[in-house]
Amino acid sequence: MRSLADIERAIDAIDPAGDATAAARDLLTLGEEVLGNWLHARDMVPTDETREGFRLLALHRQGTKGDPSFNACRETCRELAYYYNLLTMQRGLSATTDRVAMMKMICSHLHLFVGGKMQVAALGDFCCSSRPLRQADMDNPMTKEA
Known about the structure:
Layout: H1 4-13, H2 20-41, H3 55-64, H4 74-89, H5 96-119, H6 131-139
């Protein structure tokens, strides 16, 4: 399994102007890997099951067990599945590049949430706000601007 840093680089490397179907497949897989990292960090074996046709949604469901605040990224996972369907099931869409860019942004959001949640357990208690991370930076004199 790739590390979160490797996943971030892979997300960044996807070209929205390239093959939309391949990008959608790659981004969905990267989303699954992000959730796999969450499960491994909690000493859980990622499921191979699907939920509503997506392993991503089954992994999310598995990841919420014992941590209801993880539900904050539920809609992000559903949006990834939605954009995957848009890009792979409907040919000839206008603004396909924009749709790939949006899916890429959503995958990045999932990555940032899970990465932050692994640092601050309370992340997600209030929406998906990163306030606990920002607050820690504000409390650290080394990160304050002079």
